Request: fold
Amino acid sequence: MASGSGRRRKRKILLSKLFTLTGAKACFKPDHSKIGRSGFSRVVSCNQPDSPDAESRNYCDNYVRTTKYTLATFLPKSLFEQFRRVANFYFLVVGILSFTPLAPYTAVSAIVPLTFVILATMFKEGVEDWRRKQQDIEVNNRKVRVHRGNGNFDFKEWKTLRVGDILKVEKNEFFPADLVLLSSSYEDAVCYVETMNLDGETNLKLKQGLEVTLSLREELNFRDFEAFIKCEDPNANLYSFIGTMELMGAMYPLSPQQLLLRGSKLRNTDYIYGVVIFTGPDTKVVQNSTDPPSKRSMIERKMDKIIYLMFLMVVSLAFFGSILFGISTREDFQNGVMTRWYLKPDDSSIFFDPKRVPMAAMFHFLTALMLNSYFIPISLYVSIEIVKVLQSIFINKDIHMYYEEADKPAHARTSNLNEELGQVGTILSDKTGTLTCNSMEFIKCSIAGTAYGRGVTEVDIAMVRRKGSAMVNQSNGISTEDVVAAERAVKRFNFRDERIMDGKWVTETHADVIQKFFQLLAVCHTVIPEVDEDTGNISYEAESPDEAAFVIAARELGFEFFTRTQTTISVRELDLVTGERVERLYKVLNVLEFSSSRKRMSVIVQDQDGKLLLLCKGADSVMFERLSESGRKYEKETRDHVNEYADAGLRTLILAYRELDKNEYEVFTERISEAKNSVSADREALIDEVTDKIEKNLVLLGATAVEDKLQNGVPDCIDKLAQAGIKIWVLTGDKMETAINIGFACSLLRRDMKQIIINLETPEIQQLEKSGEKDAIAEALKENVLCQITNGKAQLKASSGNSKALALIIDGKSLAYALEEDMKGIFLELAIGCASVICCRSSPKQKALVTRLVKTGSRQTTLAIGDGANDVGMLQEADIGVGISGVEGMQAVMSSDIAIAQFRYLERLLLVHGHWCYRRISKMVSIIYKFRLTLTFRNTFLHSV
Amino acid sequence: SRFTQQELPACKPILTPKWVILTFLMSGVVFIPLGVICLFASQGVTEIVDRYDTDCIPLSSRDNKVRYIQGLEDKRCNRTIMVTKTMKNPVYVYYQLENYYQNHRRYVKSRQDGQLRSPKEEHDVKSCAPEDTVGGEPIVPCGLVAWSLFNDTYDFSRNNEKIPVNKKGISWKSDRESKFGKNVFPKNFQKGSPIGGKSLDPEVPLSEQEDLIVWMRTAALPTFRKLYGKIDTDLQAGDTINVLLQNNYNTYSFNGKKKLVLSTTSWLGGRNDFLGIAYLTVGSICLFLAVFFSILYLAKPRQLGDPSYLSWNRSAGGGRG
Reply:
């Protein structure tokens, strides 16, 4: 980044020291013993890619090819592809036969149309592949800094990288190959990685290098660096990596914690040094990619079947014709008596020779095949192709699907699925970036039992519009005026309340609580501020968009977080007593980070008065039970507000704090360091237990509501699609709570719906997981899921009488079991019976599997829509993949069949274009078939006898 | 543009009951009179068909007709035709062959059009095998089609008075002028053995050999008529016409029938009831449907575009998966 280099800041924040849960010490696991055996044979000599050893290993280079053909293979390969089509092959045979004297017509008339069809299709393929090639060239020629020896780093092209090279990757750059992290700009060799292209998760992942290499922070250090890495062979598993590094005679274990994958991006870290271990086709992301399947529309498949049928008819016509021909030819000349003398059967060529009737009949059969080739409409393919290209032009040009802000029209990338759009029965949608914009807005909060904020959510807008402008929501008094005024001054902030904005909160009754509330928001996070030196503006880099929204909210309300050092957080805030803006310094002692099982995050800080505070924010399901007796003062109101927010599709968090006394804290630090240093397997459990003890007896402050902003017009569009009888499934990598929120927000879920929730996150199951062996656990879990599904089905049956709609919500873990061979049938039955289905925490693989299940199981046309690289599998698997050409890179668009700019255009795409395309194509096909049928019957009866 | 936005003005008729009934009624009203007219015209054509293939074989030879027809004896034969209705001139004389496959692939292809057109291409006889050369010299016209030229002849007389048959202008004008050359003369024709059919006068150019031109337009069906000539006088009802017939052509080996046809024409051509019957049938079906739909519409009307009749709404429980 150009601006990044201009204002490089030396950050010396040892976050790993503060983090309680991550930063685990590397230790050898049993798996490491496999190194060197089969499957774990890779050896990398770091920093010496030219050594004879490396040469002899002959690992592939870093050139990644996504094209289907090369210059040399294009002709044979694409011809082969062409002749895999039955009709084309048939015409090839006919064309060859037409050069023999058998032909009832000249060879030209048989070969020309075939050549035209094949050339046209090959040209299309060639152009598509050429585009891919261009993209490959762009990617492969990107530059990265590589160690040239003597501590010099020079820019080299990606494609020239070799295994063992040392790279320096800078902020916001993609990793060009799979690397082992050696060191970073942080002293403890941590770095943040965005893996959205791999798994679709938007939050940043923390990676950490080995302790032995973290000192290699200068370019010069690499002059004499030498190490050997032994690791597993290339494979497709993104989440596992086993290897060892041999450095100065000692062995150190490597884990996924040190592995930086191609396709992910360096964030929040100025630079890292890493050694290349997998290149090009060996990288995990490339190993994971599958060849784009060629998709064919239902009409085309049906047409193929009809062609088989017609082929059968042609063959049988020719067969019966030949038999009749044989009989009459035999009669022409029997026992020296000619019947049809005018044919001169006594002086005949082989094709009509009554003395060699079987041969003649066979040749006649071939001739008849050729003659009846009119039956098989080769022109149909050309006509359909032309019509489809025109239809794609219509789609591309449609002004109603043109997104002005981004200058992006719809783009039909493959033209052969147009008419399929009108047949869609199920839509499988990604959430982030597709339904939502992936930007969080702080919109409401409840402090000390009082609800603040009357910002307008997308859902409210939709509701107001639906029910007419007169409707006024009692809880926050939305009027149409507000809807109009919903212009946002600050990104990620849509909070509007005169009572507490512009410093007026001091006059509120619970000013002290409000102060604590926003202090918490300004302090309890892992955000890193970045000051623009020219303007003095502060921007924040956060692991997740929620956190950024909180910090921005705190800033807007007068609690400006502006610097973070290794152990302190500085906040400019208003002093309640003096009424002046002061800078306050908080000493951060511990960070207990967020994890999906903990569902909360805490920091322990010491403020300037020396008071020890534990500040905690978390999901309502875990927070309320952690409140102290005295801290439950506002519990009832807050609960009500939280439920209200959740109904409106907002993400809620509960904020609470606690003052610690010195002794208590000392006990905690002692225990936590003890737990951290233990090497036993239950180390994590120990840490959990310690943190669990301290995050107790909290005092409730309030709750926040953040809107995961929906894209424009999403609820409307979903509503219309639902009216059209199309089912919508949401497949998301997000947490269940978030997914349900969004479900409500975009009117997929309604209050009156009965939710069937299948998950494996219940306490008893977690209990179960801790004990017992792996197999037993899996067995039990499966049993559990089966039981839940059966229960769900029972509910389905019970409710089939009344009109109550059901919604199925299933998490990734259960999904893994539900998708197993013996269970997917019953799962599908349940899912199809439900009005809406939401799958959360699902991996890209699972998304693809679910898509396949729906596609094969329900025999309906499926449409998958998504925008991220994690949706690629799903897009390729579905009958139609629609990519959103939004902000998150181009992977989804590249593998999609049709790209649109906004989810709401789906409505027009499906209901208008799909409908028209289907009608028109089917009319054309049927007319051409009828025409062919007439033509051939004429031929058969007039000529073939 | 409006084209790319698919906003060009379009009109799509909705098939309301009234429209449908009206359309059927209209087509019925138009078709039935048309059919009647056609049928009437066709009925006005007088046609006399006389099958003579068996009758022209002497009784003694009936058990081996093929030997008789291939024999050398005189094959003259007398036929009498009664004219039942007055036939206005021109009266067309046809011969009709049945079970004769002029459409056989070998037969159809066994000719050389270039050779017929111009003397320069005389030697191009590749496609004519086996009737291509005789003693190394090319045959003009070559091929099976020409070789098997029909060779029965008819002479008509009424009350011992000859009725002349006009054999000019029985072929297509375009054939005479461009397909058969004025300077192409028959050569080596019917010189090989066996002899197929009629021989041609080597002094007369092909463009004037109208029997050949007619024959070379091969028929599409095994039963066909070909024009023999025209009689330019009226034939009165009650006339007895004697036909002196040369029965030369062998249809006996493949059980083909030979018929002599005398026919007048109307503005619709020869006698053919098919068109009239087809019009009448379609017209009456339309009329019937119109009546049927009106009754249905009056007795049991339903609202136009009722969504409850859609397939997915009709299935019980609305359980469309």
